[in-house]
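Page header: ASSEMBLY MODEL / two components / 252 residues total.
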Amino acid sequence: MSNAILELLNPLCVVVDGNFNSSTSVITAIGEKLFTQGYVKDTFIQAAIERELVLPTGLPLAGGINAAIPHTEIEHVIKPGLGMAILKDSINFQNMVSPTDSVAVNLVFLLALDKPKAQIEMLQEVASVLQDPQLVSNLVSQETAEGVINCFKNSKK
Amino acid sequence: MERPKRILVACGTAIATSTVVAKGIEEALKERGIKITTRQCKASEVKSLVSDADLVVTTTPVPSDLGVPVIQTLAFLTGIGREAVIEEIIEKLKE
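Prediction written out in full:
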């Protein structure tokens, strides 16, 4: 069970049907959900986009389906939350540790963190999701937010 | 008694990935009986904080002329190469 993820992941902030052409458009789509649901300020989306350009968050994963975890400074966040996007067609993000390399991403977690070093359980759960190729594969095959939530509910960790 | 080695853990904002990395390093080295302390910072702060550190572990690029060993790794986030990186951290701390 991914309890900390489930506590912070609002189904209304899960994007499964988007049609995107850039990492910026993905962050915007999830960010708008977080904003509408009251998790972030109106400055969050632009801040997350700008941060992604300078300090990208693409992560190549063991199973070959890759992820990105965009986030930004705490001052743009109202309360902690988590947004997600499942990308049927991969979108390129830049590699966190090697920003000149592109990573084709199908799974995005947009993190809204309101304190330094807080939400550590959620962050650790996100990392353990990323380290579970079967769960990543299940997540990216989901076509509804409920399906995504159920993947976390049914995961063993 | 030898003082615990100090590891500066850097990422972009010092709130998300460095939290996971610091926790991962602390747990892995504790299991091996190695005493360390970690401090989190932004990549842009590394230069000003490095004088208090024995090693820098970072998920984002940092300057190369820091005067202490630097390990750039995503292993604590993705799991890829985790054991090798833990060994590398232990080796660098012996230097």
